[in-house]
Design a protein that fits this description.
Distance between the termini: 71 Å
Number of domains: 3
Radius of gyration: 28 Å
Number of strands: 37
Structural class: mainly beta
Largest sheet: 8 strands, antiparallel
Number of helices: 1
Shape: globular
């Protein structure tokens, strides 16, 4: 129904509004990807619209986050129409997706009332005048998945000065993917347009920034299997691969552990380099000491073993990437219970990625893989944090933690550490590519602002520097020319 067909008649205008109240349009936005995060669906000469007034009905457009990407929404531009009144404020809600029906499922956030930063009239035609509203948002992050695309929904409603019914401009000219979803009960239930009707897309721009989705998640497979992983029993470690050109800062861990007639008390997390020849942990580069879980949620209360998901908030630990190839590290997790009974780390064969779990019976000195005739198991966990690009070794390289910067000029036989933070520096260890420690410096838990280390006696090659501070451990690749 074209705009010029209802500009001159109140009867046609009323018919148009009745159509809007019952029609369910079609639309979606294209995928968000790392190269171009902003998505714009342009106007098609005020072709159509939907009622989207606060208290009337919700209208939502889907947004697809590409595999391996997170999207942070910062601004929205949206075209709304009004009759003899002005737009005063907007309401934006965010929903997960119901994959079975491809409609909004669970509200995961909202913006409360937003006063537009600007309103620009784009079509002043009588009786409906369309304007583009710019909404500056508190940034909202839509988390991606490393293995598949992730769909969310954004619902936008508005309120006018007079209380009249605003309409969200829509178009059939730029539809891609799904089409708009409609809720008549404030987002409790959602429906799709009748397939015989026009499928409409809202006119909008979703504006923001993208970054890499770094979280690694291995979901449960109905408590399929497990490994003993109690402190003083054995260490169990899962590998994590840091993509080429990327550093990964680990901030949280979610891990599923089982217990028998007792409760989880505390956890121990250790970090290791990789032995490329045997694909097992090699050299310990840091640990978290004792961690009390931030939360423990029972996920399978079955008798006799009850499984719980523990959330561990860590002092951020940075795994340094490589500009030329992926880099593998290992994360070992053990636990202690209230009674001292043996806890077990839930494991699965359904979602193995990378290598499978490695075991140590001597507190991390030596490591082995499971007997190859047995099931190859992966732990059930989420490693959560942030990614950042690696920097060339010719330039100062920020560790990203507490304003500590490590300078490694490959043309000079020295390493310079600048400490502009409040962290106390404890020690520096340097390992060669075989894991052998070739240099150790005790910094005495001092807050020195600058430390220079002479590596002139070392052979030419690549080394891993492990800097321990009062707050964390930092690992960086060092090149000796």
């Amino acid at each position: 129904m074209k705009n010029n067909s209802f500009k001159f008649s109140n009867i046609i205008l009323c018919s148009f509004f009745l159509f809007l109240m019952h029609a369910l349009p079609a639309a979606t936005m294209q995928q968000i990807n790392a190269n171009n995060c902003d998505r714009t669906i342009p106007s098609n000469s005020s072709e159509n619209a939907y009622f989207a007034g606060e208290g009337l009905q919700q209208v939502a457009a889907d947004i697809i986050i590409e595999a391996g990407t997170n999207f942070t929404l910062e601004q929205i531009k949206v075209n709304f129409g009004t009759v003899n009144t002005k737009l005063v404020e907007f309401f934006v809600r965010f929903y997960t997706n119901d994959p079975a029906n491809n409609i909004p499922l669970t509200q995961m956030g909202d913006t409360q009332a937003i006063e537009p930063t600007s309103i620009t009239v784009v079509d002043p035609s009588f009786p409906i005048s369309y304007s583009e509203a710019l909404l500056d948002l508190t940034p909202v992050q839509f988390m991606g998945n490393n293995n598949e695309d992730t769909t969310y929904w954004i619902a936008i409603t508005a309120r006018t000065v007079s209380g009249g019914s605003p309409i969200w401009e829509a178009t059939t000219a730029n539809t891609s993917g799904s089409f708009l979803a409609l809720s008549q009960d404030d987002g409790v239930t959602w429906t799709k347009d009748n397939p015989t009707m026009e499928k409409l897309e809202g006119v909008y721009s979703f504006i923001g920034t993208c970054d890499s989705a770094c979280d690694k998640v291995i979901p449960s497979n109905s408590s399929e299997n497990a490994y003993f992983a109690g402190e003083d029993l054995q260490q169990v470690a899962a590998d994590i691969t840091v993509d080429v050109g990327t550093n990964f800062t680990l901030e949280q861990i979610k891990v599923n552990f089982g217990t028998v007639n007792t409760k989880l008390l505390e956890f121990f997390v250790r970090f290791y380099t990789n032995d490329p020849a045997n694909d097992v942990p090699l050299t310990q580069i840091g640990d978290t000491q004792v961690i009390e879980p931030t939360s423990i949620t029972v996920v399978d209360p079955s008798f006799p073993i009850s499984y719980s998901e523990a959330l561990l908030d860590l002092t951020p630990f940075q795994f340094m990437g490589n500009n030329n190839q992926d880099t593998t590290y290992w994360i070992a997790i053990t636990a202690r219970t209230v009674s001292g009974g043996a806890p077990i780390w839930e494991a699965t064969t359904a979602n193995t990625s990378g290598s499978f779990l490695a075991l140590s019976q001597d507190d991390g000195v030596t490591w082995t893989k499971d007997n190859p005739t047995l099931e190859k198991l992966e732990g059930v966990y989420s490693f959560m944090g942030n990614c950042s690009p690696t920097l060339s070794n010719e330039d100062p390289s920020s560790t990203g933690l507490n304003d500590i910067v490590i300078f490694n000029n490959i043309n000079e036989s020295k390493i310079t550490i600048v400490n502009d933070s409040n962290s106390s520096l404890e020690s520096i260890d340097l390992h060669d590519i075989t894991g052998k420690r070739v240099l150790s410096v005790d910094l005495g838990n001092s807050s020195i602002s600058k430390k220079t280390i002479d590596i002139n006696t070392l052979q030419t090659g690549v080394y891993l520097l492990n800097l321990k501070t009062s707050e964390s451990s930092l690992v960086k690749k060092i090149i000796k020319k």
